[in-house]
């Protein structure tokens, strides 16, 4: 009779499902700040077309442009990009 490896769990146990096991991988925070943004309709249409050309949503395009502008200005906080 052989013994199971020490790191194996008995059948039906929930090994590996506990959130406290080991450090979690670093990811972007799931909670995003929600902001109401009022735009001129023509500006929005141009933005939406540009976003579509780059296969992004309008929201993702706005965030992309804001991040790029912040980086160029040297104002992008560390760990946000």
Automatic annotation (TrEMBL):
Biological process annotations from GO: regulation of DNA-templated transcription
InterPro entries listed in its UniProt record: Arc_rbn_hlx_hlx (IPR013321), Ribbon_hlx_hlx (IPR010985)
Region (Disordered): 1-35
Residue spans crossing the bilayer: none
Name by which UniProt lists this protein: Toxin-antitoxin system HicB family antitoxin
Organism: Streptomyces rubrogriseus
């Amino acid at each position: 009779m052989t013994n199971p490896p020490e790191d194996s769990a008995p059948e039906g146990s929930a090994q590996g499902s506990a959130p406290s096991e080991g450090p979690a991988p670093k990811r972007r925070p799931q909670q995003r700040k929600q902001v109401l943004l009022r735009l001129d309709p023509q500006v929005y249409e141009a933005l939406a077309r540009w976003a579509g050309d780059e296969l992004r949503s309008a929201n993702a395009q706005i965030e992309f442009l804001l991040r790029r502008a912040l980086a160029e200005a040297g104002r992008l906080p560390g760990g946000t990009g």
